[in-house]
Amino acid sequence: MGVVLSWEKNQPQPASIEPLVKATAEDMERVNRAILAQTGSEVTLIPEVARYLIDSGGKRLRPMITLATARACGYGGEGHVELAASVEFMHTATLFHDDVVDESATRRGKQTARLVWGNQESVLVGDFLLGKAFRMMVGVGSLVALDILSAAAATIAEGEVMQLSTARNLDTTEDEYLAVVRAKTAALFSAAAEVGPVIAEASRSERAAFRSYGANLGITFQLIDDALDYGGATAELGKEIGDDFREGKVTLPVLLAYGRGLDEDRAFWLRTLIEGEIGDNDLVHACHLINESGALADTLERAHHYASIAHDALAPLSETAEKAALLEALAFCISRAH
User: Domains in the chain, ordered, with CATH?
Assistant: First the structure.
């Protein structure tokens, strides 16, 4: 099941992240070397746990954005590599913490680190990676970039706390839910997109354009993930379909379906997500309710809206290979819902 959402009507080929991968390939090799070098520790468990997640896959979209935006602004130094590695460490640390808070069982098709080693170990290794991230930021020598990324780290933590109050609350409003998404997901995308132009000494308008692109890409990315959990395929998500449902997460498709449902439908959501009583066929019924209510289609429509804002943010900028790759990555994000 799923809803097809077109991005560019005249797009001759399916959208792909490959242009961004190719545009940043050389720099990403250096980022990967920096990441491996920074995960070393005399405490054996730290590199073991850190590399378990780092080596488990993922598109590395956030650090590629940092590299691409720096190059798009004509940067020719070395700092973008350290900042991109910092961004990836921040992201990886949040995954460790998220999996503990959410009690997640799988991540990218593998057992989460918390199940392999334990919750305490996962949290502490996440803290280690955050510390390494900030050391690399300091090494770049840009107080502005440090300020942007440290502010993002604080915002992400705020988002985690905000989510605790919305995670199993079906009375959460759409605005409240989007506030969590802006904090937990969009903040790091936004920071990743802005720090490249900062060290390239780009103009304020260029910085603002890339910042807007990153923030709205982040919202798009999360809303697509929310929708795919009820109408996608495991390969697209990097996790099992229905994980959000089984973990009791109240996401936008659920909020929309709950608000539009009959009393018996709302009783279903209360039983499954709030009380945690999930039967064998409940995921199928949940997908049915979300589709029939139009919640899935409307979640994708909202994702399309934020993608359009991200697309327009880059419109005034000079045409570069990196800009084209960033726009293609945005289209790819939307195309995952096809």
Answer: 18-335 (1.10.600.10)
pTM over 0.85: yes
Q: How far out from the chain centre does Cα 332 lie?
A: 14
Distance, in Å, from the CA atom of 237 to the CA atom of 226, rounded to the nearest integer, reads 10
Say which residue the tokens 């440290």 belong to: 150
Please give the Cα distance from 241 to 245 (Å, whole number): 9
For residues 27 and 67, the answer to whether their CB atoms sit within 8 Å is yes
Q: Tell me the per-residue pLDDT of 141-200, one tens digit each, with 9 for 90 and over.
A: 999 999 999 999 999 999 999 988 887 899 999 999 999 999 999 999 999 999 999 999
**Tokens, residue 321:** 């290979």
Overall size of the chain counted in residues: 338
- DSSP for 192-259, please give it: HHHHHHHHTT--HHHHHHHHHHHHHHHHHHHHHHHHHHHHS-HHHHTS-TTHHHHTT---HHHHHHHH
Q: State how far the Cα of 123 lies from the Cα of 120, in Å rounded to an integer.
A: 5
- Phi, psi at 53, each rounded to 5°: -85, -40
